[in-house]
Each structure stands twice: as C-alpha cells, then as structure tokens.
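Q: What structure does this chain adopt?
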Amino acid sequence: MTALALAGELALVAAAQAVPAASVPAASVPAAPDPLGAETLLALAAFAFAGSWTPGPNNAMLAASGARFGYRATLPHLLGVTIGFCVMCFAIGLGLGEAFQRSAILREGLRWAGAAAMLYIAWKIATAPAPGSGRARGRPLSFLEAAGFQWINPKAWMMCLGVLAQFASGAAPVQEAAAAAAVFFVSGLSSTHAWTLFGKAAGRWLGDGWRLRAFNLGMAGLVAMGVVALMTEDFG
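A:
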C-alpha cells in the first residue's frame, strides 16, 4: 500500500470519528401520554357536568331543602355536597377505589348503609310539613352531614369509580386525582347552586298546599330511586 493510499484511509477514519453524535439518527421513542392533557380534561369535564347536573339524591335533597328552608339556610348543605364529593373523589383516585372494589365487605356495607340512609331521607322529605305550619320543624343538613353522606351515596360512588376506570392511567395518581377533584368542584358547585335555587324559586309557587306536597313526593321519589340503583349495581 502506498503512503498516499494509507494517508487517505487514515483521513477517512478520522472524519468518521469526528461526526457529532447528534447527527446520527436515534431510534424514535414514543412519548408517554400526558394524563392531564387538554383532551383528557375536556372529556372529564363533560363526564363531570353530565353527572353533576342530572337528578340524583344530592340534587333532589338540595331542591327540597331550598324549597323548604331557602338558599341561605341550605348553603352549608350545598358546600358539604360539593367539597365532600371532591375529597371522596381524590381519595378514590389515590387508591381507595381499588381497595373498595376488592373488598366484598366494604361493598355490601355501602349497599345496605346507603339504602337505609336514603330511604330515611326520602321519608323525611315526603312527610315534611309546609313552612310556617305548626309542625314545621327541622333544619337543613349541616356541612359535615352533607359531606359524610357522599360516602354512602351510590351515585357519588358510581361517578368516582367511573372516573377511575375511564380517565386514570396510574402514571401520575396524585395529579390525576387532583385534576378530577378540581373538575368536579367546578361542576358540583354550579349544579348544587342551580338545584338549590330551583328549589327556592319553586317554593314560592308551590305555596303550602297540594303543590308543595306533590313536589316533596317527587323529590323523595328521586332519592328513593337511588335505592333501586344501589341494590342492582355491581360495584365489583
């Protein structure tokens, strides 16, 4: 091999070694999906608003309380529903939902405790006397009572478990649970205010006669319907 050819080969080797690493195409690695992306949040918001605004035990109780006691007196009940549900949703997102689904004792305990509580509440709404009558006693639920009711409310559990199944990837459980709770706070605050104000407005028209009685029976029926859902729902 001549000295000229050897020098040429050495030059080629040196040039190859001098190529920067960035110019060598690396294997493309797919990016991990963002659990808090805009698309996911929009879908979660649609789910939350649909679930929060439709009739259920919470909304029926708030409407009945608004009609009987007014908006201001029902405000602690309203905030207890909203904040209590968000706390519950956050806890389920952190893993409580999985433990619940694995425990038959917890599921059956919720089923029977929830059924008893909702039948009692439905009876209290159905038999509530008219405001201003001699028998008109009672008070709205307190903040803690309304927050505690979420833990035996079947619609609340079904919504939270639905969020867990549809939107939680497990990649960032704290962020996912916090995002779900924040979305439900906005949807819940709007729906609870709307149902309470609806009840208050309806109370002015209902008066204290048969229309109020029919309204209370209707709200009691909505609460009692939750018992049917509770007894037929498979939480496993």
